[in-house]
Amino acid sequence: MNSMNNVTTIKELVTKKITVLKEEVIDQYQVSFEVKKDDVHHLLSVLKQAGWRQLSYLSAVDWIEDNEFELVYIVFNWEKPVHIQIRCRIDRNAPTMDTILPIYPGAKYYEREAHEFFGIAFPGNDSHEKQLILENWDDIPPLRKDFDPKAYSDARFPKREYSNDHVEMNGQKESKQAKREERRTHILDLIKGGKK
Amino acid sequence: MASLELLLIFTLISGVIAYLVGKVHPKTGSILTIIVSGIVFASLAYFGLNEQLLTKVSYLPYISFIQTPLAIFFGVLVSFVFFMVSFFNPYFIDKYTYKAVYSLLYLLSLAGIIGIFFTDNFMTLFFFFELVVWSSLFLIPLGRDEEVSVWYFGFSVFGSFALLSAILLMQSVTGTFDITTGLQAVSGFNRLSVFILLLIAAFAKLGAFPLHYWLPKVLTDSPDPVTSIFSGGLEKLGAFIAVLGLVKLVPTGFFIDVMDMYLTHYILAILGSLTIIGGTVMAIRQDDAKKLLAYSSMSNGGYIIVALSLGSSAGISGGLYHIIAHAIASTAAFLAIGAVARQTNTTKMSELGGMLHKMPITYMVYLIAIISMAGIPPMGGFISKWLIFQGVINKGLILVAAATFFGSIGSFLYVFRPLAALFLGQELPQFKETIKEAPIVMLIPMVILSLLNIVTGVYPTNILAYINTLLVDLNIVQLDITRWTIVGTNGTLNPALIAVMFALGVFIAFIIFISLKKSRKVELMDTYTAANFIYTEELLHYSVDFYAPIERLYEPYIHFMKKFYQALANKVREVGALVKYYIFTSKPEVATFFIMLVIAILLWGDLV
Amino acid sequence: MMINILIGFGVALFGFVLQTSLGGINRKIIGRLQKRYGPKWYQEFLDIFKLLSKRAISHGWLFDFGVIMALGGIIATATFMPVTNSIVAFPNYDNFFIFVYLIAVGMLGMAMSASGSGNPYASIGVMRALTTMLAYEVPFMIVILTIIKLTGTSSITGIAEFQQLAGNNWFMIALPLGFIVSFMALMGMLGKKPFETYIAPAEIASGPMVEYGGKQLGMLFIMHEITVFIEVSLFVHLFLGGAENILIFLLKYAAVYTLVNLISNVYGRFKIDQVVKFFYKWPLLLAIVQAVIAVYLGWVI
Amino acid sequence: MRKLKLFLGPQHPGMHGNAAIHMYVEGDIIKKSYLLPGMLHRGFEKGMERHSFVNNISLIPRVCVVEPDINELAFAMAVEKLADLKVPERAEWIRMIIMELARISIHLMAYGGLGGPTGNYTLMYHAHADRNTILGFFERITGHRVYHQYIVPGGVRKDLPNDGIEADILDFLTDLENRYDEYRDLGIENPTLLARIKDTILLPEEVVWELGVTGIGMRSAVNKPYDIRKKMPYCKYDEVEFNVPVSNYSDARSRVDLKLKEVVQSIRIIRQCIDKMPEGKVRVPIAQGQSMRWTVPKGHVYSVVESSRGEFGYYMVSNGGTHPYRVGVRGASYPQGLLGIEKYMPGTRIDDAALWVDTMGVCSPEIDR
Amino acid sequence: MKSTKFSELTQEQIDRKWWEIGDFFRRNSLWMLMYCTGCCAIELPPAMTSAYDMERLGMGPMATPRQADVLLVTGYLSLKTLRRLIYTYEQMSEPKYIVGFGSCTINGGIYHDSHAVINQLDRYIPVDVYVAGCMPNTESVMNGFVDLMTLIKNKQANGWIKYKENNDWYKQNQKEALGEVKIKDEFHE
Fold first, then answer.
1. Where residue A183 falls among pLDDT bands split at 50, 70, 90?
2. Are E76 and E37 a contacting pair, CB within 8 Å?
3. What residues of D are in contact with residue E45 (Cβ under 8 Å)?
4. Of B350, B530, B548, the CB nearest to D8
5. b/e map of C3-33 (b: 16 or more CB within 10 Å)?
6. Residue B409: its pLDDT value, please?
7. Cα-flanking dihedrals φ and ψ of residue A195, to 5°?
8. C–A contact: 3+ Cβ pairs < 8 A
9. Can you name the residues that pair with D307 across neighbouring β-strands?
10. Cβ–Cβ contact D22 with B under 8 A
11. For residue D118, which residues of chain C lie inside 8 Å, CB to CB?
12. Is residue B54 part of a domain?
């Protein structure tokens, strides 16, 4: 199958030049490599020269339990249609990552957004510290796992107050408020992993 | 002072007095100019309009005067402009290096003007012509740049030589220096030569295409009052000479039947049209308000040429009326800009904005002036443009008409630009605190000129009646006017009725306006910005490259005249450098002196 | 004289009522063209009176003064407009140039007031309006020159009567090229697409109108309706042979205005320099050719 | 030289969507410009982490307002890849019908939207009338006009209604095809519009690669059929015949032209879909009765679909729980919307600013999220 | 005897009569401000165009807040939008009305827990009519406008008066959510 060939060539290409921590073939159109932080730039320029000219996506994942951020770069080649995910872990306490602007000029705003939502610094990108989407933001970056938007919202934006009505269920009065509370704690449980 | 000679001597002597006084106290010297020019204007107007001027000469040699309606017309108008502008002198005198000289030159020019208009001898005319050229030449560098005075000098000398050649040619054919008889006697091919030479002189003085290059430079760089003088007064010398050449001289050349005019005149009309288009097009793209008005002066000069070359009563009376209307309107406009410049030290539109809120009277003066310049009723400019259109349409000159229409609408474009960029728009922070309305003495002439603008537009028949007597003098059919109406070749105009209807219309609109709910006053910065916040007034003021889209269309083509003159100047400079190495110093004044000396020696033989 | 003035204002009022109702009807027609039901025929009246009833804002005295001057100037212009041969306020004074230049007072008032609001969009809009004017006026005036030269009068009723006396030989037929040019110029004058550059909501947010609301906007709407009345009836008188009685006038007026609207509604709008280029290319040439043919050669059908 | 600052949006008739473009202007040429996004920011990626995989179905269509179905499909495909779900065949065909109907609707809207900046409102009204018909079909199929929540992980929510909807759709498509020439005459063949859109707002090939523009913008410049549907076919796109229209010169006109040509291809695809669609189930049940507690295996996947503006992708990370650990959305207009406006809008005239945004296909909700 | 008819009316009553006449015009000619704050704006084009044709009711889109009568808050409001919305609302000329679209304006809707979206619109600016739904159908949008017209007729659409009277309360709420309403930073010089 022609498209599976693409994946194997990529694997050869990448493993020849870079030490890959972990590699994963998701399907015939997608591969994922986890590399060290320092290898990212090298790998990206290799891939760009090999034809992966388009930066499709750049973002981060907050692995709060490992105290690490994972940066994800997804590049794409239209001639050999395979999406390549390049992932690397960086320290969560002082997150910095050198910019990839010289390789992919299109990364400018992705990096700026990653700074805004995760607090990752991108030295080399002049405008990465400017605010982009948020305005007058005064809390920790919102996409970090330890930021609770619900609490933020409750504190800043009051809810509409409905009359504390009751529902008749099987003859006994039950408070809607209590039910709502119950539901909320249940959902919070689910967020933390759910009952397996 | 009914005697022209005494008036002339008085002006010259008071010029010297003003100089001496000015050495001690410049301001007093400049106040003297107000008084003297006031007296000159008053005498000319009072005695001239009653035809009581005395032309007897007893003290000055070689000079003789004659009192014609044409002379009185121009004399009163130009001395009036001088009088009005002189009110500005005390306020600007501090800005010049040679304060005392200014007053002297100012009065010398005035004296020259009297001489030019009232003489009946061509040599005398030439002498005074040169007096005006000299004195105005030294007025110009009082501003900023010396280079422009060189340009002015160059074109003036060209015009002077043309005038001189015309005079000498005429004299050699007819044996007389007398203006009227001389111009009527000259005939044949010589008539054509005289015609061309006179028109060259007129074009050089009027700043018409293709001899327009100096005008915008001079008008931009000379001091603000001098600019007004040039535009309202000195430029009209050219118009005067154009009248001599186009109207007094019997026309010659091939007669085009379908247009009912001579080919020579038609060519002139085309040149006038080119002047109109060139002036309009250039004025649209200027950033400096003074330069913009300078190009508008050029364009209006084109109107005068077109009108005078038509030769019909509507055309010539329209041209003469346009001389009045434009003198008043453009002086007012220049004075208003000058008043702003005095407060802000700049006339660049991109640096100004929102002056309306601090200088409302100046704004109104400017508004009325530009309504007149754009030829919109009920101001004077409308009457003259209407007459000129009558003349043009009656002759069926399609291309000339296209140019006049273009200039007429185009003037609307360029005069609006200073209005919007300089007076309207956001009030810039640097002018919010410091700027005040102009002093009352400066407002006096501006208000008088504005009133005159309205009067000439609402009740023009009085002036037109005077122009009619002038037309009799020039052997042209009179314009058909009644007390309130002007009857053109294809329509009747009632300016007063238009004004009344306009007033009534505004009154009705006003009634509608005040009977409705009162509006809420908001700040200028509280404005629609697509819901974005902005705090910098400068960023919200549209004044740079105002007419960018239309400028882009003709931008590649505008520099051909400039290139031509620059190349010419380079050639002259090469020759000049050689001469200069031996004789001249770097000062243009000295050079002028030498050249004039040479001319004077050459002329000596002819005079005696 | 008093009677004449009253007739004049009567004409202005008539023009306002006529154009406003016709405007509403035209909105309905356009609605049908766009597969819609369309508004009520008197919607324009509702809009104007609604605006007049609102509490507006003002940016200073000039903002108000300009609006008053605009409306006043236009009312004054309308008073000179002949409706039919006999309904004319000031016979013999209905000079063509009055309309061209007195309308400009109103325009100047509006332009001044708009720029006085301090909004850059307004200034840009005014700039575009003036540039458009420069574009369409020159070809139009050349055609007018031809007509005045042919008829020997610049009086509007005079020109209309000239056509009627010539056996209803309208200038529309006699000067076909000139008619085409003038029709384009009329579209420019009325600010219809494709020459609608100075309103251009998507570019400069309705241009000069950007800061107006409430009574100022209402007055400008009245002004606009009267302006349209003046321009369209000018066209009717110049090219369609005027009107012997009011019915014919209404018919011709409605036909011209509806035609302009229908044509304009399937077009987009030009950029401002394209407007200038457009008018200075073919229409100017056609106008000059027409003028040469009619004036110098005397070939008039 | 003093500059003037003008704004396009958020409250501006020329701006579709809620975003502001700040422009520094000299004369009428834009000298500097940038997009100020974030006015539609709702914290989507955070919100998705707080909802379970099934709950998210109601949230995702709202990411991109004008074109909700691509979100549903991209999300569903991501989840299916993670959970290794096999979608029934009929569901794949129905998905394609929905996607292509949506594509026609958004192209019509964009084409009608061309009437806004250029002032041809008749075009806009006609295009919206047809779009409204398509919304009517959606309502009959899914019960909603705009946010359908129809494509769910494991198939589609329910089968097509049994009221002859296929015939109605075919009728409408034939009607649309018949009026195709009329549309062209009213729009891009219209001389006044041509004057506006021809040879303006160029997008050279280098710029495409520099910014990472995809979709019609890319195809109009590079002259190659770079379409996800062709290159990495999802659903059953490899079993239908269609062309990808391309051009080698990308000005505003050619981009709009490609949109119209894509409408024709979409019509072709829908016809084939209705023809080839088998009977059968439309959904695999996930965690019967316990869908709220349904967990998805650990993993990370990036799923893409071809939207009307280009490559639209979801990056999804699951840590094996009921909720996604991280969802990242790659908006198709992200490159041209932010970097494109900053780098390549200067030099345009203010007349063309709205057209720039329109024909480049900048959609602010997917930039802000 | 003759003047009794007029003398009975006080100035206040005359004003009210005028106001009623004005109300007739206002409700038949509602010009709305096109400010697409959120997703509900997508159902406005169908309402405006051929299918439902708002112009029948005399409604039409307008370019700037100065000209408009109705402010349509179409959907959720992020903080960034709310600032601009308040600014826009204050620029409109009186009397002015607000129609809130979708559940988001009522109670935050699906974004009730978002860090960037406010929950209850009428704490910040007064709302005359709510159109519920996510997103509201075109029919209900039209119905909302008809409701607004009825409210104007019954003199109940007086949110703008409320805003004037309780300005302090509104300003305080705005400040709590937004800090300063007008911001001045590198993007807004």
1. confident
2. yes
3. 109, 128, 131
4. B530
5. eebebbbebbebbbebbbbbbbbbbbebbeb
6. 86
7. -85, 115
8. no
9. D310
10. yes
11. 202, 268-269
12. yes
Q: Compute the average pLDDT of residues D256-263.
A: 89
Q: Which residues of C touch E55 (CB under 8 A)?
A: 27, 31, 36-39, 43
For residue A74 the two structure tokens come to 């997804």
Q: Where are the beta strands (DSSP E) in E20-176?
A: 31-33, 60-62, 70-74, 97-101, 129-131
Q: C120-148 burial by CB neighbour count: b if 16+ within 10 A, else e? A: bbbbbbbbbbbbbbbbbbbbbbbbbbbbb
The overall average pLDDT reported for chain E is 84
Residue pair B299/B276 in contact by the 8 Å Cβ criterion: yes
Interval B130-167: pLDDT, tens: 888 777 777 776 656 667 777 777 777 788 888 888 87
- pLDDT value of residue B607: 45
Instruction: Report the Cα B146 to chain-centroid distance in Å.
Output: 22
Q: What angle do CA A42, A47, A51 make, to 5 degrees?
A: 150
Q: For chain B, what is the mean pLDDT?
A: 81
The β-bridge partners of D304 are: D313
Q: Is A61 helix (H, G, I), strand (E, B) or coil?
A: strand
The chain-wide mean pLDDT, for chain A, equals 81
Non-local (6+) Cβ contacts of B188 within 8 A are none
Q: Could you tell me which chain E residue has the CA closest to the CA of D42?
A: E116
Where a domain ends, among B120, B148, B168?
Answer: B120
Name the amino acid, one letter, at B528: Y
> First and final CA of chain E: distance in angstroms?
66
* Parallel, antiparallel or unpaired: strands A30-35 and D326-330: unpaired
Q: Is residue B314 part of a domain?
A: no
Residue C263's closest CA among C176, C170, C190?
A: C190
Asked if the model's pLDDT at residue B290 lies above 80, the reply is: yes
Q: What kind of fold does domain D4-368 have according to CATH?
A: Cytochrome-c3 Hydrogenase; chain B (1.10.645)
Quick one: fold of E27-178? Rossmann fold (3.40.50)
Contact E98, E125 (CB under 8 A): yes
Give residue A196's pLDDT.
Answer: 46
Q: Is the CB of residue B463 less than 8 Å from the CB of residue B323?
A: no
- Residue B519 included in any domain: yes
Residues D17, B477: Cα–Cα separation, whole Å: 70
- For residue B526, what are the domain limits? 509-550
Cα→Cα distances B489→B312, B388, B394, Å? 10, 11, 7
How do the domains of chain A map onto residue ranges? 2-130, 160-191
Mutate to test the interface with E, among D12, D40, D131 (most CBs of E within 10 A): D40
Q: How many residues does chain A have?
A: 196
Specify whether the backbone of B347 is left (phi greater than 0), alpha (psi in -120 to 50) or beta.
alpha
Q: Where are the alpha helices (DSSP H) in chain D?
A: 44-49, 56-59, 68-83, 89-113, 115-118, 121-142, 165-178, 180-186, 191-197, 205-211, 216-222, 228-231, 252-276, 334, 341-344, 350-360, 364-368
**Residue C267 · residue C194 · CB < 8 Å:** yes
- Subunits adjacent to chain A (3 or more Cβ pairs under 8 Å): D, E
Per the CB < 8 A criterion, the answer to whether B382 and C101 are in contact is yes
Interatomic CA distance for residues D150 and D196, integer angstroms: 39
Q: Are residues B519 and B601 in the same domain?
A: no
The three-state secondary structure class of A91 is strand
- Are the beta carbons of E46 and D16 separated by less than 8 Å? no
Which amino acid makes up residue D305?
V
What class is the A2-130 domain? alpha beta
pLDDT digits (tens, 9 = 90+) for B327-373: 888 888 888 888 888 888 888 888 887 888 888 888 888 889 888 88
E116 pLDDT above the threshold of 70: yes
Q: Please name the amino acid found at residue E76.
A: Y
Task: Measure CA B371 to chain center.
Answer: 17
Do the domain assignments include residue B520?
yes
Q: Which two tokens stand for residue E147?
A: 């409701």
Tokens 């549907």 sit on residue: D229
